[in-house]
Design a protein that fits this description.
single chain; about 230 residues; alpha/beta; Rossmann fold; 6-stranded mixed sheet; 4-stranded antiparallel sheet; 7 helices; 10 strands; globular
Length: about 230
């Protein structure tokens, strides 16, 4: 199998000198195409930092990050942004929906950035919102939606460009148990249907157990990496 994600000796230090805080320390990790990987660890263990590095939203202090064979350090900002738009879907822990946009506009935004024809945008957005059970809320803004509805809209936005890599940061952290189960089933279902690579960061062992492989993080280091 081909490796979709590779991190080689990656460290990320925030600040400089003695004031520097290591968010990640010498992490080496590979994720195969089509794999569902669970990253488990407590708050502050480095899970979110790791996802941000994979998405090109942050850069390592040392080491290298390779996505689909491309070393991100060799790409300029525009190329990283294009790679992220075309290759990666990110479900953020805090949803990160645009508050002034409707649910429909939030989901359509990545497609519109790619210059997709308006008819294609409308068809794909409506179909995805319907599949996720929030098409009747498409004209509502995030502040008018429940936490579960916001999460579904965030997932739709992450999926709209049919990404090769899907990243989810604590996707069930703000949800009740029933809604959490539905969200996990949706993510795993899409991953299987499209053969996408899914990386889920969580502190919940039950959520982590759904993965093909579980990697533990503690204090910015890999502490368990089952074969």
């Amino acid at each position: 199998m081909s490796r979709t994600i590779e991190l080689i000796g990656v460290s990320r230090v925030h600040g400089a000198g003695r004031a520097g805080v290591a968010a990640l320390s010498d992490v080496t990790l590979a994720v195969e195409a089509g794999e569902h990987l669970s990253l488990i660890g407590p708050s502050g263990s480095g899970k979110s930092t790791l996802l941000n590095l994979i998405a090109g939203l942050d850069v390592p202090t040392s080491g290298s990050v390779r996505i689909c064979g491309h070393d991100l350090a060799g790409l300029d900002d525009a190329e990283v942004s294009r790679m992220r738009l075309e290759t990666i879907g990110f479900v953020f822990q805090a949803f990160n929906l645009f508050p002034s946009f409707t649910a429909w506009e939030n989901v359509a935004w990545p497609l519109e950035l790619r210059g997709a024809p308006r008819a294609e945008v409308a068809g794909r957005v409506d179909a995805l919102l319907e599949r996720l059970g929030v098409v009747d809320r498409r004209h509502h803004r995030p502040g008018e939606l429940s936490g579960g509805e916001q999460q579904r809209v965030a997932i739709a936005r992450a999926l709209i460009n049919e990404p090769t890599i899907l990243l989810a940061d604590e996707p069930t952290g703000n949800l009740d148990s029933a809604t959490a189960g539905v969200v996990l089933d949706l993510l795993a279902g899409v991953q299987r249907e499209r053969g996408a690579t899914l990386v889920v960061a969580t502190h919940d062992r039950d959520v982590a157990a759904a993965g093909d492989r579980v990697v533990g993080l503690s204090d910015g280091r890999v502490v368990s990496q089952p074969a």
